[in-house]
Give the backbone structure.
Amino acid sequence: MMTTRFQIILIVGIVLMLLLILNMIRKRKLELKYSLEWLIVLVLLLIIACVPETLTKVASTLGIYSPVNMIFFLGFVFALIIIFVLTVTVSRLSARIRRLAQIVAMLNSYMGEPIEDDLKEKIEKEVKEIVSDKLK
Amino acid sequence: MKMLAIIPAHNERESIIFTVEDIKKNAPDFDYVIINDCSTDNTMDICRYQGYNVLNLPINLGIGGAVQTGYLYAYRNGYDIAVQFDGDGQHKAEYLNDMAKCLIDNQLDMVIGSRFIDNAGFQSTWIRRLGIRYFTAMIKILSGKTITDPTSGMRMCNRKTIEMFANEYPRDYPEPESTMRLIRHKRKIAEVPVEMRDRQGGVSFISPLVSVYYMIKVTLAILIERMR
């Protein structure tokens, strides 16, 4: 089903990916919580690369003709699931950011405190123009 | 009775003074707070020059998030009544007293200032009125209640509703959806006839393409709200 050469390339590639992700977690660039799914997938791929026969077996158990079809199908489903989970995460994050911004706004309030003199000079003329426009 | 006018402002340099002075003069019983939603013009400087009360949002949240900031402020500072009042000069402060009277006398949860009871004042374009009629019909079918101006941004709430909106408020185009939400919670809503002006400056955010998105999004939001 695949040549030994390709098998070795595959295994090396997967192991490199695994090390990369683990290293990023170690350096706190990735959160373990969100990278767990990637680690699981890579481990599964590693098993398949080492023992390609498992693929044929799983495919025939699921009733799929060729293992290649199964790879495409499962890969697509997996990608969709990850994107969906990300959408859920984005929704939650944006709700949190919104509340955070609102609380910051309340701390960052101006209740009629005097302004700096240089700003005052800059804005005075403009305010007068706006006010006289409205009075017309 | 502590009363607050919530003024969401995004790039309203030409109309913000006009709006605040209108409230100070014609509805002096109301405190006011401006929510500066990350204006890119110098709205903020003008407010500070004038010595107005401003909450300054660090990131742009859109109209829903800005108004909710006001409700949160009203809730935390013990206000009994809060009213949304547009920063672009469309709303007239002289009607705030009528609305407050209606809210208190009838013990309502929300009073909406409606342009379409007396059909007086600025009536918006016919295509917008058509859109508003559509939402009126939709709310009528789904809840049996008639709201003549479901998109009106001039809405006054009691403390109970302030708390509800402070906790949960739609992100954009919030008015029809949150009205439906109040009806679903069996809150008492009434409308008071008001006149509005055309905007005093700035541009509306609703362009033709955006309005298609608006109609679809709000329709869905109302339907989902009905299913909750």
User: Anything to note?
Assistant: Chain B has one domain: 3-227.
